[in-house]
Specification:
- By secondary structure, the chain is α+β, with helices and mostly antiparallel strands.
- The protein has 14 helices and 16 strands.
- Strand 8 and strand 9 (128-129) form a beta hairpin.
- Helix 6 packs across helix 11, helix 8 packs across helix 10 (236-247) and helix 9 runs antiparallel to helix 10 (236-247).
- 39% of the residues are buried.
């Protein structure tokens, strides 16, 4: 996590006050914060200061629509409890909210309304306590899902809201096909088609290498990822338009795709779905992997394969690319299921542990290693959610 954020955390935890206004004034002066209503922000983070006599606070914190403006950077709730008592800090980006509480009965994916309370902030996430300086960097690394994806979960989790969509219903035939997709993946990785796909993606990357390096400096992980995906997958005419936009620092925006993978290519024996993942090697992040229901539904055609085209970037530029099967041993082990989606209208989404992607990209002798029984065990786990 950036030094400025570490300094902010240190200052909050060490500053003694029994006044919310005094805390706001202190932090605004210390970090040159700008004000937007009750939100104070700078380039690196945004905050909302609350007051409670107890660490367990249920105060209304902020409207969901206001949070949307700042969800691309760490959003902290600073809790002042009074002199002689410690201050607390919570990450409150949408990933770390369980639901929306206040005035949210008309909340939908097209009608952003309602506010969240202190009690709606998830206090322990993936085994990490959400109130300690030691865990904030690891926690924010999980905040890689788009606003739209987190909104979909919050709509489903909020009382009296009818969820949009439903889980993929798996028939016995579907189950057999999903498990058989492991065998298809193993064969594909040894085929000439895999070599063709690898060369195709490398050629596309080389045609927009400079644009990718410019896009890599975009701080918002979702905007950065979507732009790089578009640069690689677009036709030549659209790619040139994007390259000109990036050169002029005009960053286009994209809606979240409702499909599995960014690049689909059909061969004689089956169809490939390739998801493009850019990994900034010096940043700590756990990139989104896939929507579980979309993945299972696509794999129910046993002649489908999901791959990840990993692009590793450091200060010197693009240092490595890897085309990796979703069933590669290391990826299976590094797949995190976001359990707070479970039991709703979706099996949820998965993320990859970022350090594993770094290891794959830095392995000069990398080859896809696929343990069929491990992959099938993993698939059974996903189907059982």
């Amino acid at each position: 996590m950036k030094n400025k954020i570490k300094e902010f955390i240190s200052q909050v935890l060490s500053f003694e006050t029994d006044s919310k206004a005094e805390m706001i004034s202190f932090l605004s002066d210390k970090f040159a914060l700008s004000q937007d209503g009750t939100v104070f922000f700078c380039e690196h983070f945004a905050i909302r200061v609350s007051y409670s006599k107890s660490k367990s606070f249920s105060n209304t914190v902020l409207s969901l629509s206001k949070l949307q403006k700042y969800d691309g950077k760490p959003f902290f709730v600073v809790l002042v409890c009074g002199k002689g008592l410690p201050n607390y800090i919570y990450l409150a980006n949408t990933t770390f909210l369980s639901k929306i509480s206040h005035s949210s009965q008309q909340l939908s994916q097209t009608n952003i309304r309602g506010s969240f309370n202190g009690s709606d902030i998830i206090k322990t996430y993936q085994g990490l306590e959400n109130c300690t300086a030691e865990t904030f960097e690891a926690l924010f690394a999980f905040h890689t899902l788009s606003w739209e994806e987190n909104l979909r979960r919050l709509v489903a989790n909020t009382n009296n809201i009818v969820p949009v969509g439903k889980q993929f219903e798996i028939s016995n035939t579907d189950k057999e096909n999903i498990l058989s997709s492991v065998d298809f993946a193993a064969k594909f990785l040894q085929s000439e088609d895999f070599k063709d796909l690898s060369q195709d993606l490398e050629s596309r990357l080389n045609s927009c290498r400079d644009g990718i390096l410019c896009a890599a400096h975009i701080e918002n992980i979702n905007i950065r990822g979507r732009l790089i995906e578009a640069l690689i997958t677009s036709d030549q005419e659209h790619r040139q338009t994007l390259l000109e936009a990036v050169k002029n620092e005009e960053i286009p925006t994209y809606n979240t795709k409702n499909t599995l993978g960014d690049y689909c290519k059909t061969y004689r024996n089956g169809t490939t779905y390739t998801d493009i993942k850019t990994k900034i090697l010096y940043l700590h992040s756990n990139p989104k992997a896939y929507n579980i229901d979309k993945f299972l539904e696509t794999m129910s055609d046993a002649h489908s394969i999901l791959l990840f085209y990993l692009i590793g970037i450091d200060e010197s530029g693009i240092v490595a690319t890897r085309l990796v099967s979703a069933y590669h041993n290391a990826l299976v082990d590094a797949t995190i299921v976001q359990s707070h989606w479970s039991g709703r209208n979706s099996r949820g989404v998965t993320q990859f542990r970022g350090e594993t992607l770094n290891d794959i990209l830095q392995d000069k002798d990398f080859v896809n290693v696929l343990d069929t029984e491990k992959a099938r065990t993993f698939l059974r786990k996903l189907m059982s959610i």
